[in-house]
Amino acid sequence: MSLLGDLAAKGTLGPSDLDAFLRAHRFPLVEGRTVTFVYVGAADEVRLRHWISGLPTSQPFQRFHGSPMWTLSIDIPEGSRVEYKLEVIRGGHHQLIQDPLNENLARDPYGANSVVFGAGYARPDWVNHDSEARLGEIHELKVESAAFGESRDVLVYLPARFRTTRRYPLLVVHDGPDYMKYASLRTVLDNLIHRLEVQPMIVALTGSPNRLVEYADDERHARFIADELVPSLEARYPLLPQTISRGLMGASFGGVASLSTAWRRPGVFGSLLLQSGSFVFTDIGPNDRGPVFDPVVRFMSDFRARPGRPADQAYVSCGTYEGLIYYNRSIVPLLQSTGMHVKFTEARDGHNWENWRDRLREALTTLFPGQLMMVYE
Amino acid sequence: MVHSRVVVLGPQRLQPTLADAVASLGIKGRLAAVTAGWEERESEDQELAAHLHGRTTNLALYERADGVFRYDTELHKATRERQDRIRRSQELYRLRLAHQLEAARELCRRESLAGYEGLVAPQLEGAIAGLRALDDEHVQRIRSIHVEFQLRWKPFERESIALQRRELEATLKDCSALCIAGGNVGILLNRLRMFGVLDMLRGQPIFAWSAGAMVLTERIVLFHDFPPQGAGDPEVLEAGLGAVEGLVALPHADRRLALDDRARVSLFARRFAPALCAALPPRTRLDWSDGRWSGESGTRKLCADGALAEVGT
């Protein structure tokens, strides 16, 4: 019997029964694969809004046995993370709200969503501050860009115990400040470097004032990253010269920017970290995602026709609840056909920053493995 | 060469016990320090020096090796080639090891299954014998690479190294003990071996921790049960310097090993038996004296039955 079934078995439900039920449990209720969302309050209609590709994006709650409680049970596989909001409709007004009964929130540049964890999901311990981990530093850098005709701000992460007498790998991150803010990238780097799981590395955190244009296979962007930013960093910091030690990283359109930059400048970057890349293509006809994707689709057509060998290795990940999963699954054999070493991971998650955060350990240890087995301090 | 007096300590960074250990042997005077395992941070030994009240003299082996390689490019090239061969041999050994270890682990899993009573033990014994034979073979293979290198390049006879050895010998003569810190175990081993530091000691005791302890053993075992990638197979790096006998040093075993996994602990202990597989978290201490080991209270060893037991005094 489910928890709701137990409650229903009591017959007529008074306010005290509901209060006791709400106090006794955490919400949403997670019972194996069945997750039950609960809303209590006056409403004409309550709907679950989520971004799971393949399911209706809006699903109606049912009033629970004539009480003010509304419920919706859906199947959520083990290990899942699902971000959502509730849509409460009353008197013709639609309000999109965070789940009042769920304190778990996932933040992103647009605000915050409620998040439910399927059975077995655990927030990785390496995303939390570790008091024993030595901390890296962030330096601010202005890079003059002829490509864009302006200077661009770049944050540079230097690992703890940085020394000019040592050479470091370089990872250039698209949407870098967002990765820091919403995917805990700085803490993750501090922890994984401290644990010797990844090499101490220099990370350039770049941003764009117009990412949907500049990240969509824009030659100016490739020029800025490969011909302006990297030489500027080489002049300031001790970087390893091998291409395998030069990486590009990004999520969504940032994934496109990473692949496109590597493809436009072969031999510069050896490692690609591509998360939920917006690698949309069509085999026939126009794309159905709007004009912002047109340059991406053109790029993907060119890339699929002439992939060359954009890098030596890639880590590719995508959430199985994303509409982009088909494109990401498709790009893996294509990358492998170029002779690249490719690791691909699917996660039961959506197109969001915490999905990308949760994959960072596997991604970084794949591309920049540390000397875990050799160092005993 | 086996040394008469060695003290092995747990990691020192957050809970240093070295000064107490030095005092416990009544050692006065200068203390030679090796921090080559810290690589380019070798000279950043201020905390260590302060902990020992400024009595340390850093032997600067990493820096000396750098100097040798800058001066003696022929030796540098030969050393790099040797290390490449060792690295490749390690890769090949690892390939074989992964399969043999997985087989042994699968046998362990079947030990408790119905229908396998009495059948698993002899198979597991054979699997462990196979692992030991593979480890031995690997050690021999790496040793032969070193022997070949020594015979061909005679490093101690080269001026670049002989000069450094004379300086080190003079420094060590004035020191009452040698302290070897952790860090990169491969780098540390190679630097100590390159200058033959242990052979210059005249009976002074050695204090060592973390990778410093590992290099003193007869066989260096690399380990981590929770790596981000792969199965976490313990592997033999190569023979150590053999300053002590019968020890597999496991610094930070509390973090790096699944000590509550009896099958894993048992397999580890049986594979490296009869060596004492000593868990060495912070604040632990083992003493090597008169050819035998004794441990401070709380210092534990991995046992063949999968349990942990006090090393004993």
Your description of this structure?
The complex is a heterodimer of chains A (377) and B (313). With 377 residues, chain A is of the alpha/beta class. Chain A folds into two domains: 3-117, Immunoglobulin-like, CATH 2.60.40; 125-367, Alpha/Beta hydrolase fold, catalytic domain (Rossmann fold), CATH 3.40.50. Chain A contains eleven helices and 19 strands. Chain A has an eight-stranded mixed beta sheet, with helices on both faces. In chain A, strands 3, 4, 7, 8, 9 and 10 form a six-stranded antiparallel beta sheet that branches. A four-stranded antiparallel beta sheet of chain A has the order 1-2-6-5, with no helix packed on it. In chain A, helix 6 (219-236) packs across helix 7. The mean pLDDT of chain A is 96. Chain B is α/β, with parallel strands linked by helices and 313 residues long. Chain B has helices at residues 18-24, 46-51, 61-71, 73-110, 120-153, 159-173, 185-195, 211-215, 253-256, 262-272; strands at 5-9, 30-34, 56-58, 175-180, 183-184, 206-209, 219-222, 235-239, 247-251, 276-280, 285-289, 292-295, 300-302, 308-310. In chain B, strands 3-2-4-6-1-11-12 form a seven-stranded mixed beta sheet. Chain B has a four-stranded mixed beta sheet with strand order 9-10-13-14. In chain B, helix 3 crosses helix 4 and helix 4 runs antiparallel to helix 5 (120-153). The chains are: A alpha/beta (377), B alpha/beta (313). Strand 19 of chain A pairs antiparallel with strand 5 of chain B, so a sheet runs across the interface.
